[in-house]
Specification:
Blueprint: H1 35-48, H2 62-66, H3 75-88, H4 93-99, H5 106-117, H6 133-162, E1 177-178, E2 181-182, H7 188-195
Antiparallel strand pairs: 1-2
Helix pairs in contact: 3-4, 4-5
Length: about 200
């Protein structure tokens, strides 16, 4: 265990549990938290927490705790994901999991690749080979821009046709850009085949 640092400035003091004052205690008689105990908490964090949970000064990585579902996807894991996509392809979730991301499920990896490429229907990438991280980033940018273009085009068409429709309301199609991803699910017939085990 590392030696407790002698410092008067404690990181993120507002996040440390503390007593209301020197006489009032939280819980048991041993639970009054003075500065030395708070320093001990920080030292324990540094010794026992994974690198994603707290920083070098002992302050918590709040992003780690803000994740509502699943677990925190670090920069390091993102780099492994990119290596996996380059080596195995964007639809080889099983191989990427086995070699690069053992702690993640194939579904989590698939969803993360959707986010990486900014593209929902990964079947379109079944036979696509990526050679570099830069190529993946360029593809993601292209996909996002294409979704934005389609949404703008549809919006403009609706406005143009609205003036010709004599008060008939025109229905807008589903948005293409959803959460920064080009949302283009396969046709419902194809999805049903997959769920029925016919594909």
């Amino acid at each position: 265990m590392s030696k407790i640092e002698k410092t008067t400035s404690l990181p993120q003091q507002h996040l440390l549990p503390k007593s209301e004052d020197k006489t009032k205690r939280i819980g048991s008689v041993h639970n009054q938290l003075d500065e030395s105990k708070m320093k001990y908490i920080i030292a324990m964090r540094k010794d026992l927490c994974k690198e994603n949970i707290c920083f070098q000064d002992g302050s918590l990585n709040l992003k780690y705790f803000n994740v509502k579902k699943g677990h925190y996807w670090s920069k390091h894991e993102n780099e492994h994901l990119i290596k996996g996509v380059i080596k195995h392809g964007a639809t080889s979730f099983k191989e990427i999991k086995k070699e690069f991301l053992k702690d993640w499920t194939e579904t989590e990896i698939r969803l993360r690749i959707c986010k990486l490429l900014r593209f929902y229907n990964l079947e379109d990438y079944k036979d696509v080979k990526f050679n570099s991280p830069e190529q993946i980033l360029a593809e993601a940018k292209k996909n996002k821009e294409e979704a934005m273009r389609l949404d703008t085009e549809e919006s403009n068409n609706l406005k143009k046709n609205a003036s010709k429709s004599d008060g008939v309301r025109l229905a807008k199609k589903d948005q293409r850009l959803v959460g920064g991803i080009f949302f283009n699910p396969p046709p419902l017939k194809e999805m049903n085949k997959e769920y029925d085990g016919k594909k």
